[in-house]
Amino acid sequence: MIFRTRFLKWYFIVALVIPLAYILLSYTKDSEPIASGKVRIEKTVSGYQLLKNNKPFKIKGAATDSLFLNELSLAGANTIRVYDTLGLRKILDEAAANDLSVMVDLPIQRCLRELCDFYEDETFIQNNLNTFDAFIKTYKDHPALLMWVLGNEVKFPKRSKSKNFYSFFNRLVKNIRKNDPNHPITTAISNSSKIQIMRIALWCEPLDAISFNSFGGLGNMENDLDKTSLFWKGPFIISEWGINGPWEAASYTNWGAQIEDTSTKKAEQYVERYQQFINTDNTRFLGDIFFYWGKKQERTHTWYSTFSDDSLKTEAALAMESIWKESKQEESIPKIKYLLIDKKGANESLVFQPEITKEIELVLEENGGSHTVISWEILPENWYYRWHDVEEKPKPVFKFQDSTATRISFKTPSEPGPYRIFSYIKNAKGNYATANIPFYVLKKDKTI
């Protein structure tokens, strides 16, 4: 009986391990290039190389829209990643005019918590495939096109949860390959998730590369890639990178508002992260996409924006120009230490009564540079956002008259709730710096 039990145990181990080993080994073979046309990825003696028109091409780019493309090109970038398919013709034309290549996102419906019920509907699948076919045929010959990105932060589910998702995804890859053999295909996942990489490698039609959106998780990427090399060791792109996002903020107020760094501090962080994690000699690395070039609302309108509402440059834009040109750009720009309300910082979770007078101070660094004007405004917290939805900047509840003063008085709003007061400091060179501090206003009958 003991012998039989042991025999069955080893039988099942062998029965499971040998097929699994075969599958894993089959995915670690050196694969031939898939896209073979104008833009392609080639295997070299040491790793992989992206080629455009038969010339080596290292991606140095930014996620953006159709704004500030001339500024981006002049800053030394060569690529943009865009998510807007409705205005794509205009973006491609403007990119070509500015000698920029374009990574084009194709929006794929995400599975929510591994629930993919809509992929059980063949009509839904066929309609999507037909739409993508027409889209690819429309833009495949545009000279600015660099590659296709199948979905942004797609959650590849367990196969047992949705075989039809993989059927759809693989049919889509095959269709694109058939309609456009001249451009590589990738997909962008959140961080360098080992599980997601494994599912793509084992269950998806082969892609030319895998792309990673990574912010706070950048430090884990090399380790993740090492651990997944058993079943995937292909080329990769860092398709979004930057400072920590609002979802991974270093500190919060007591009511859950993210505390945002000053634009000065962010510029330092971009340089540090690039030098530490992006400027890599990994031979599988094809390039990177900085997040974000332009104006973007993500919890606040300043968290990721490199330009102001009136199109002035932040220090982050200058920092990226220094990175792309590989030389420090010396340009005058205001530098902020922090904001204080009644000499208290954001980490003290500032709670006030309504309609009382407070004093806010903008503290500049010693070498903070000259400035011509300082603007202030109070905005309600962007409290009711939906994950992955397009956010809009809340309307200000109060705007202050522009001045040169770094210290002003203000009245707290009459309505209870969470707010932020923003400061924007500008100089004559067309550059600006910004900081904000969250605070909470109680109901009139409440006490602190």
TrEMBL record:
**Pfam families xref list:** Glyco_hydro_2_C
Q: Which UniProt keywords apply?
A: Membrane, Transmembrane, Transmembrane helix
Does the record bear S-adenosyl-L-methionine in its keywords?
no
List residues of the Glycoside hydrolase family 2 catalytic domain. 82-275
Q: Which residues cross the membrane?
A: 7-25
Query: Could you tell me the Gene Ontology terms of the biological process aspect for this record?
Result: carbohydrate metabolic process
* GO function terms (MF aspect): hydrolase activity, hydrolyzing O-glycosyl compounds
Q: Which SUPFAM superfamilies match?
A: (Trans)glycosidases
Record keyword Transmembrane present:
yes
Highest taxon of the source?
Bacteria
What is this protein identified as? Glycoside hydrolase family 2 catalytic domain-containing protein
